[in-house]
Every structure is written in structure tokens, then in C-alpha cells.
Automatic annotation (TrEMBL), chain A:
Protein name: CO or xanthine dehydrogenase, Mo-binding subunit
PANTHER family recorded: ALDEHYDE OXIDOREDUCTASE MOLYBDENUM-BINDING SUBUNIT PAOC, XANTHINE DEHYDROGENASE
GO molecular function: iron ion binding; oxidoreductase activity
UniProt cross-references to Gene3D superfamilies, sorted A to Z: Aldehyde oxidase/xanthine dehydrogenase, molybdopterin binding domain
From TrEMBL, chain B:
Residue stretches making up the 2Fe-2S ferredoxin-type domain: 6-88
Annotated PANTHER family: OXIDOREDUCTASE WITH IRON-SULFUR SUBUNIT, OXIDOREDUCTASE, IRON-SULPHUR BINDING SUBUNIT-RELATED-RELATED
CDD domains for this protein: fer2
Identification of the protein by name: Aerobic-type carbon monoxide dehydrogenase, small subunit, CoxS/CutS family
A Gene Ontology molecular function term of the record: 2 iron, 2 sulfur cluster binding
Amino acid sequence: MLADFDPSRRQFLKTSMVAGVGVYVANLGSPAFAALFEEGILAPTDAAWDAEAARMRFRLDGVSKVTGAKVFARDIRARDMPHWPDRQSHAFILRTTRCDRTYEGFDLARLEAEDLLPDRVVTAQDLERDGIVVPEFYGPDLLLATGQTPSYLGYPVAILIYHDFARYSIAKNRLKFKQDVIRYGQETGYPQRDPYGTFRYIRVGNDDAYQPDVYSALQETVLTPDYRKRHPIWPEALRSGSDAETAMYHAGRIEEQLASPPEGWVVFEREYYSQYTDHFAMEADNSNCWYDRSSGAMHVVCGTQSPAELASWMPELLAKSRFASKRFFLHPAYTVGYGSKDASVFPYYGLVAALYADGHPVRLANDRYEQFQATMKRHPFSMRHRIAVERDSGKFQIFKLVLDANGGGRANYSNSVAFVGATAAQGIYYFPSSDLTAQANYSRMPEAGSYRGYGTLQTMSATEMMIDELAAELGIDPIELRLRNLLKAGMKNTQGAIPAGASRAGEVLHRARRHPLWTEREQRKQAYEAAHPGKRYGVGFGCVQKDFGHGAEGVFSEVELTPEGRIRLRNIGAEMGTGYATGQAAVCAAWLGRAADEIGTAETEWSDMQMESSGNPYIMAQDEQDRLARNPRWTPLLMQASSASNSAYYFSFPTIEAARIIFRHGLWPAALEYWSRGIGGGQAAPYVVREQEARWVDGKLTASGMEPLSLEFLARRAHEMGGVTAAMAHAFNRWAWATAEYEIDGQRENLPLDGLALKYGAGADSQKRRSMTSPRGYHLLDRANVHYPPTQRNNAGVTYYSACGTLVALAVDTGSGEVEVLDHHTILECGNPIVPELVSGQLQGGVAMGIGHALFEDMPLYEDGPGNGTWNINRYRIPRAKDVAVWRQTSEILPPLSDSDPHKGMAEVVMIPVIPAIANGVAHAIGHRFTRLPITPDKILEVL
Amino acid sequence: MSIATRPLALTINGQQHGPIEVPVELMMLDYLHEYANLTGTRFGCGQGMCRACTVIVDQDDGSSHEMRTCITGAHYFNGRRIRTVEGHAQRDEDGEVLALAPIQQSFLEHYSFQCSYCAPGFVNAATVLIERLQREPVARDQLEDTISDALNDHICRCTGYVRYLAAVRDTILSTPGLVKEA
Ligand code: FES
Ligand code: FES
């Protein structure tokens, strides 16, 4: 079977050449992937889609998931892969647990005695000899060489490979927790490094908040200083100096006002700490890779939020090495991560292990101790918040924030977590002036990276805790104080950018203010405490708005309509458990009347579009962008990872545009042709039939009283008439969409796309048919007058927000210090939910995770922390059903302003307001305001 | 020194497995994964804390209970009958799902799970609960507490549990004989 199998021809799509290595990707949902699993993962859309109600009855991956089918990479063994050898090897990693001494090798004597020595050991020497270099993004070498001091706890030193499971698992057990395996040498002290980065956003608004700012990051600049002795060097303050110098002048003025505030102002200052936490994604990191020595092909099965990164960096790594790998196959599986599988270094260890596994497929799968030790964490933040407020009016005047984000020992997204945290810190409020400094620091802690909430959880929780205290100090109702200071539509954020669309945080506040948990809080407190001696009742509230998206989104999507009326969809997003595949299928219904029938996720194969990318979209200069954009196939970013709540809005965007183009240039002309048949212009003639009046009802298209037509009929006619039947699109967003003009059917259209290819039905004229020359038979259109959002918009930080508020009722046990969450109610604004059940599921799960952050989850940073390899959930408490008021909790989603509201990202914002709500509720219960999270029983007992 | 093994034979989802020589120190979860290629039973913590690895053990007296396979040796199951998540739905000869078990259908329709890594544990725990209630029905006013008690040890990081527990409640209420009126 193996001999005659040629995956590159039979089942896989060749996506591109990266550094001379052919890249092939077989995705879930593609025929190739289905062949790899015992069952196709997605259920037929016909069963799931309720045409009458235009809704999904269940998630498309649901049947597979609830029957325990192989959906995770973790479930895959060599024998599940049709073209792999059956024999499965297994590997694990040896890691150092000290950073104050040099590493001097390891001792496997313990294994030798039991004949358990590995079949192959991989060390830094192998990598050095074979030219294997980790992608620059990830910082230091994959494996530490002897004689060096580990730069973080848990630094890998060797990969141990076994060609059978039994010896692997016993050997791994024998070495677990053993302190005498790694040998250390001379004392060196802990490593020191410069911070990863520092960012400062200064803004001075106009007296009229709606007029142009005096100074802002968006108008002028963000400060990113150099360092001397690990401290930032700030520019000189000059009133009419360079942008940076002027910023420092304004910073000085702000500081003066805070130090000696004008009459009638009060300045509040608090320090907050947000702790170090683990994602605890239930599927721990794992990969299964096979390096086929005979053909030089590398095969990678893994769960990832960033398939495009792996499909480009892994072949690059191989190409630069001594291994003559000419072909690279990636199988991205359904997974779960909350950020932990975005830009993770883990898959590269699996890749490297395979190179040394003597031609066997090798599985590298973390156990939970290893996962705690080695996988990215949430950044601990130390924050100093200062707010100046006018006492009588309660109006905020100045916001100053200094935050330190601990990024740990391997570079990851620490810089962006820090500045995203800073730029979100204002929450839902308008501040006339602000000065926000964020610094991401190196430490020997196991690395921190992307994690649901991404810095904003830390800063906005602190802001909401401060607002509550401030309201108490000022004697103003906390929700009233919030309303007085609301960032309204058209006002600017702390970067000087105007947020997209209407601001609906005010509606969230009004609803919270009317909720019985809030209106009856004092009566309920009295009643509860009378009925429960020894317990203290409290109600707290928090409200935030969180950005969604990365500030650079590149997305491909393809929608194809068959002559039978079936819809095929491909998109770049990965299924992380959020119901992404189901949601993508469903968004097609807006234009095509039903959900897609075939869905390809994590697709990285878009060569039909011939698009290319160069430069860094976040930091490129305007003239560089202008120059590059002259190439009609250039885009600032090809594909973004699945993270930052970006799928609902950004990843759906080109899907919806593609479906709209098929409607407008395929289905609508077919419908008009039918409705106009017959004498005198047919049934359409007596009425005025316009495209704007088109509606899908029960899966059929009607407009202005026309006879409803089925998708099957219209699809057949669109094909016969040679209309547009498929569209492949690329979109780019930098806090606004790139636009370009395209000629479709002789009409010039300005579209929010920077790349577009079309297919026409069989009835198309010969000229159109001749134009469909791409590998998949597309006509690649030439764009004109492309407009990319100016690079200066990078300084906007954020423009897309979803608002969310949570009320929490809780009881503090004065004997044990335990906090019991009794009830909570969450109010979310997210535009138009695609699948409401998926939105509410995200909300409920987010709130639970927020409860864990507020009350339970915490770890020491260094030698006693997870880096020592002994952490598991026996000492890291994950919220369980009884911790989250599972039967009592409620939520509501604000109705969209209209059915044309966007599908906003919401999976992160929902976990945040519950955190300050709990802190504020504890303050209501016992009168003490905690500023360091989590609020654990011992901290409570200490103050009681 | 070679690895000590012993023969293991058991019944999984109604099918006889073994006898087959497996290491004496092998955990049941590893047996299911590496020897039986049944990977629906998941590894979460390896410590007995998360219950992702739960299977159902069927007793001769007709009762059933949950067991954690990450902390129980494979040989403990010698001669026993167990059910895993793969065994609940009706399937055709090729293994294609013909009909889900009621609790699976309910989880599906309630959108109970997201990533689903924990779902096998919840399917098994809810099944054991339902089978217990068939023997010992519960008063309606104790139903929610009974469900929380039965499922509380199962960790789900994605969902916040609401849709799991609501689905279990619906299934119990719509199955005759599980709830007695107070
Ligand atoms: S894996 Fe067995 S209880 Fe967690
Ligand atoms: S659905 Fe993901 S852990 Fe439960």
C-alpha cells in the first residue's frame, strides 16, 4: 500500500514552494483528510441546517465529537494515517529546572539499569551539526547546549525517542520529578536581559472631544524607546520638538497636573497585580510527525491556531538544514487553545524529533505536568493606575497607566500583549488626556504568550476595580459614574482613533442598572446575611469593551456554488472548539439562502490568487506600502492566525463578500431572467423589482412579491447563463478594510477586497471561459485603484469593540474565607450573532474562566512554579460546575441595531467583566478592596 | 531486563479484547489508546482530577459506575466489562453512526460542548447517572442538585457547564421513570 501511494498527486493540494520545499496541506473537511479518519468529521449540512428557521440545529462537527471520533491531533496514531508506516515511535523532552548554574549534560543511569535507554537522543549538538535553527520569532535555540545557563525554567536540553510505547512510557515515569537527571555546573547567577519592548501612548484631546486632538499616537506617534542598563531612555521634552519630543512635553504637563491637581480635582492612585495563569486547554500540546527518509518528505499532524505559520516556517527550517526535505505535508487538526496554540514553539520540537526517529513516525505529546511546565501562560501584569477626576461632576480628566508585563524567558507575543493591554485599559470611558506606558520584560519564568483576553483582561479588570472604588470615594452610584464618563460614538480612544460604529456600552449599563441583582442588592444582602450567619453577601459589577482582531488581518475565502445548488466553502480559520466551521457555513445563508454543504477549515492553499506578501504590516512605513502596493498581487498580510476573537468578523468577511458577488452576478440575474419571462416582461413587469428587495424566505429567493425560487433552480440557471458561480477573495484589514476596483460583467465595482478571482457557469461566452486559467479554473481579476489603510493607522491600537457587562452576587464565608458565586447576569453586545447558541456557549465558558481568574487560578513565577515540572491541577484549581452558579446564571445579548450589524468578535470580552465584578462584590460583602488577584480564602481571612 | 507483562482480556463496548500480553504497569488509558486504538477516552491530567478519561464499568448485578483510566492499571480491568464513548451510539457494520444515544443527542442539540475534549467523560458520567436513576428515581426538587453532584468532578474548560447540565436535566425529565414527583 505504501509503495504505490503518492500523496502529492492523489489526495493533497500543493500549496506553494517555501524555500524550495513543496508544501502540501490536507485539511479537515477535504477529501484527503476524510480519508485519514475513520469517519468524516462534519455532519451533512442538510441534517444540521433548518431551512425554515434559517438556523443551525447543531454544530457540524457535533456528531463526531460526541461519539468520541478522532477529531484531535492527539487522537491520531501512525496507523490512522493511510500512507504512513504503522509503527509508532514516542518521544519526550528533558528539561532543566534551574537558571542559576550552567547546564552540563544529563544522566540516564536510572534507565540503563532497567534496559530503558532511549533508541535515539537528540541534543543541541545534533541541531548544531545539522543546521537546524528555530524561527527567529521564538528567540533562543530549541535545545540548550552544555556549558550554558538556561534562560528560563524548563528549558529543553534533549529529546528522547523510543520506538515502542511500553519502554517509552515506563522510562518517562522513571524520570518524572527526578532531580538527579540533569547535571549542573558552576554558579552563574540568574540571566539578565533587556526588556522585550516598551510602548508609550500619549494623548491630549481638544476641549471639544469631537474635534481633532492636540496630540495623539494616531496623529503623531507611539514612543518606543531604547534601553540603557535595562531601563528605557525617553526623548527630551520639547514643546515644539519632534513628535516624540512633543509627546514628552505633554507627558510632563500631565504629570504636573497629577502631582498638583487644579482646584476641584481629585487624583486616585492604585497598584494592581494580575497573576500568572495557565490556559489549561484540555488537549495538551502534541504532534505526530513522520520524516520519510526515502522520499525526503516531512508529514506533520498537529493542532494549531496558526496553520499558515507552520506551513511557511517549518519548510523554511527544513530547507536551511542538512536534511534534504523537498516536500512538506501539514495536517492541521481540530483543536482547542484559548491562545496557547497560537505562535507556539511546541510543534517545532515534534518536527525536529521526526528528523532523528530513524524513519519512524514519532509522537510527542505533553502530559499535564509537561504542559504546565512548558506551555505559554498568561502574562502577569503589575499596574499602576492613576485617574484624575473632577469631584463635583465626577468627570474623568486624566488617565495615567504604567504597566510591566512579565513575558518570561522565550520571546513570544509579549510586546503586543503589553501594548494591547495598555491601549484597552481605558475600558468604556473617555479620558480627555492620557499617558499609558507598557513594558514587556524578560524573566526566567516559563514564557507567557497569547491567552484569551490578551493583556486587556489584566488592565481592564484593574480599571473596573478602580472605578468602583472611585465611585464609593466620590459618593456616586458606580453605574451612574460609568455613564457620566462613557466613551460615546465619535469620541476618541486613548490612541486618538474613533471606534467603529455605535457605542453600545451605555445600553449595557442601563440594563445592568435596572436588573434586580443590582436594584435589590441592599435588601438581598440583609436578607441573605440574616438567613446565613457567618456569611457576607455582596453584589459587584464590571463593564468593559474589548477589541477584536490583530490590527492586521489577512484572510482568504472561497465560496463555490455547484449546478445542483450545493455550496462549497474554504477558509483559512482553524476550528478551536468555538464552532468556527459551523459559523462559517452559516454566514453563507445571508446571500445564498442556506448554509454551506462542504467546509474546509485551516486552508492554506490559495495559489490561484497568486498573491504575495512582504514587509511587516504592523511597522512598515507609508512609502514602503505605497511602493509595494504597485504590485497588483501584493498584500500586507496573506493569512492571520485564528486568535484575537477574529473569526466571526474578519474571517467571515471575505466569505460574505464572495457569497454576495455570487448572488449579485449569478443568482440575481438568473432570478430576474425567470421573473421577466413571458409577454410584456412577465410577472416582474407590473412591480418594480430591485436587488435591495431580495429576501431569502424558507430557503427560497423572493423580491417585491415575486414567485419564490429555490437555490437549486437558481444555481442551475446561473450555471447555464454563465453567471458568476464561484468567488475566491482576499481581504486585508488594518482597523479598516483595504478596497479596490474590479470589473465584473462589464461593471466596475469598488469592493473591500484586495484580491478576487471568479468562476463562471458553463453558459459563459468563450472569452470568459478562456479567462478561467488558474489551477482551480478561476479567472483572476486585476484590481485597480487599490487603497490600503494608511500605515499610521497601526497607531490606532484598536477600533473594533464589543461591550460586555456582568453583575455578580456572591457570599463570603467568614469562617473559611471561601467566596461562593451565587448568581450572575451578563449583558453582551456583539452585533449580529451568527449562531446564537455558539455565542451563548462562549459567554458561559468565558464567564467560568473569568471566575477562575478572579478566585482560584495562580502560580508562583519561578523555582516553585510550573517551570519545575511538578504542577498539575491538584494544586491549580479550575472552576467546576458548582463554582459558576450553573443553574442560576443568566445572560442576554443586546438585539442588533439592525439585521445589517456586523458579526462581532466576542469570545474574549465575555470572560473579563466578571473578574472586576467579583472583586467589587467582595468589597460590597466585606468592605475590603483587593488589588491583587486571585482573591483566595487566605487573603480574605487575613483581612477579616 | 525486559518489561514484565501479563495477559489481559476484557470486554469493551460488547466486544471481547485479548487475551493479549501487556505490561504490568500499563495504565488503562494507555491500553485503550495504544493497544485498542480507542482514543475517544481522553487524557486530561493523568492524576485522577479532571475525569476526561472516565469509562463505564458494568457490574454483573446490572449496575454501572465510572472509573478513571488514567490512574487505574489496565490489569484491574481483566475479565471486566466496560463501555467507552465510542460504544454508545448505534452503528452499522462499518462503524458509521446510525443513531446517537439519547444523552448524546441531547448534548448535540443543546450545543453542550465546544472543543469536545471533555465530552466523552460527560457522556459516560451522564449515562451512569441516568442508569442509576432508572434504579433509584430522584425527587424532582432534588434533580438539579443530583445532577451537579454527579457531574461536578468533570472538568470542562470551554463551556462553563451550563449547556451540559441543562441537557442532562432535559434528558432525565423526558425519560419516563427517572424522576418521582415529591
Ligand atoms: S485524565 Fe484521568 S482524571 Fe484527568
Ligand atoms: S468542551 Fe472543551 S473542555 Fe469541554
